[in-house]
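R.M. (postdoc): so does anyone remember the format we settled on? I'll just put the structure tokens first.
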């Protein structure tokens, strides 16, 4: 069903983004993978996937905070593959902004990457997605509903992503489906000292499944929305082991 369809994935060369890329590629899709600074990892991923299917993966380097370049990201995708079927808004910035220490630059970075860029990318992609009756998948976060202490701006941005998902579903239907995936404890933050072992275990204990998830769990949810959810739009799946149900 997905052979030769085209997906644009932001932040698609590392962590969850890379797993999404591998999963969609395995279904026969052609990919445009965006990255900001992870050039070596981007080239390694491209090489491995193109070895499976030649000329199936293209890389585009771009800073999503440069809003003028967002339309170009979509246009380069269409220019190369002559179509666009799926937009995955995966790229995200994450770091603490304690009240009293947050700067305007923090707001600009977190809001810019996590909600402004997905909005304008979706707007630029909409005409092409309508033509192919495609879809948009937004990667949200459990902290959209349960704000994370000392991460107020990040939590705000992900709450806005929830609203964006529902609003775009309303605006772009019936041609384009728009859904979201909300990860829980899948990968820990990369910043050293962000979470110690006790904090990690506390988070896992709040899940009903009592274990950490895997990036593939998110990728499978994305694949469901892309391939199988023909009558689903405006919905957000929480892939969090039941943590969002914890009182």
């Amino acid at each position: 069903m997905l052979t030769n369809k085209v997906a644009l994935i932001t932040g698609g060369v590392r962590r969850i983004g890379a797993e999404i890329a591998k999963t969609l590629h395995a279904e026969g899709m052609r990919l445009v993978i965006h990255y900001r600074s992870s050039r070596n990892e981007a080239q390694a991923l491209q090489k491995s996937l193109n070895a499976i299917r030649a000329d199936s993966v293209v890389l585009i380097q771009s800073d999503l905070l440069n809003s003028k370049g967002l339309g170009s990201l979509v246009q380069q995708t269409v220019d190369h593959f002559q179509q666009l079927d799926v937009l995955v808004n995966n790229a995200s910035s994450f770091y603490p902004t304690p009240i009293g220490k947050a700067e305007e630059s923090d707001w600009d970075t977190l809001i810019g990457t996590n909600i402004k860029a997905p909005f304008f990318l979706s707007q630029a992609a909409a005409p092409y997605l309508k033509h192919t009756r495609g879809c948009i998948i937004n990667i949200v976060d459990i902290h959209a509903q349960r704000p994370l202490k000392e991460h107020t701006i990040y939590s705000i941005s992900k709450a806005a992503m929830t609203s964006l998902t529902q609003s775009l579903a309303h605006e772009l239907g019936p041609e384009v489906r728009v859904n979201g995936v909300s990860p829980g404890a899948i990968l820990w933050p990369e910043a050293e000292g962000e979470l110690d072992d006790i904090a990690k275990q506390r988070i896992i204990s709040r899940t009903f499944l009592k274990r950490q998830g895997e990036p593939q769990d998110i990728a499978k949810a994305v694949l469901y929305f892309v391939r199988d959810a023909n009558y689903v739009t405006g919905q957000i799946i929480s892939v969090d082991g039941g943590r969002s149900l914890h009182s």
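R.M.: ...and that's the designed sequence above, right after the tokens. Also worth knowing: The CA atoms of residues 145 and 159 lie 7 Å apart. The two ends are 41 Å apart (CA to CA).
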